[in-house]
Write a structure and sequence with these properties.
12 strands; alpha+beta; two-stranded antiparallel sheet; 6-stranded mixed beta sheet
């Protein structure tokens, strides 16, 4: 008899749903399968940040998107962007150990606010991921989190889109032109 974990069962169900619901990003969060529709600003933010990061990384690192990273028995995240060793990406797998992630970025959608700001921030920090970037086209800002600990990130800055963002990371100083990132026309004005 083969015994599977709850995460294995959810992952199996998630695999089947991917073909049924194109245009949705799906992941397992707190033991539940979560589906979010992909909107143009979400995709455009991912593309622009991906290009900017990829151009600055050494050949030892690669950017991946929407690839599964199991975190524990009830969380398997598919980050919008994650930087992992290039040798690992070359294996071309559907899931990778979360401990490989050196930098992670999420793009906020109306449905993902709590997950991106709270749940994922806690899990990413608990795994020691040095830098977590939250790009928020709904508010027109990026939140940078660093200095991970077991209870979350101890460093946090919020930068309104416009100036160039510099991220001091173990990968080097990474620069992202936030002035080129889309802002939802219904975004709440920033103070």
């Amino acid at each position: 008899m083969t015994v599977t974990s709850d995460l294995d069962r959810l992952h199996s169900q998630l695999s089947k749903l991917g073909d049924i619901f194109p245009g949705y990003v799906m992941e397992i969060v707190e033991g539940c399968i979560v589906m979010n529709p992909v909107k143009p600003f979400h995709g455009k933010t991912i593309q622009r940040v991906w290009g900017l990061l990829e151009d600055q990384l050494s050949a030892e690192w690669s950017v991946v998107s929407d690839v599964a990273f199991p975190f524990d028995d009830v969380n398997e995240f598919c980050p919008d962007l994650a930087v992992i060793p290039a040798a690992e990406e070359d294996a071309n797998q559907g899931a990778y150990p979360a401990d490989l992630i050196e930098l992670v970025a999420e793009v906020v959608s109306p449905e993902s606010v709590r997950r991106d700001y709270e749940i994922k921030a806690q899990r990413y920090a608990s795994r020691g991921i040095p830098n977590y970037l939250i790009f928020d086209p709904l508010k027109g800002h990026v939140v940078t989190l660093w200095n991970p600990g077991p209870k979350g990130y101890r460093g946090r800055d919020t930068i309104v889109y416009g100036p160039e963002l510099t991220v001091d990371s173990p990968l080097g100083k990474l620069r992202i032109d936030t002035g080129r990132l889309p802002i939802d026309p219904k975004a709440r004005p920033q103070a």
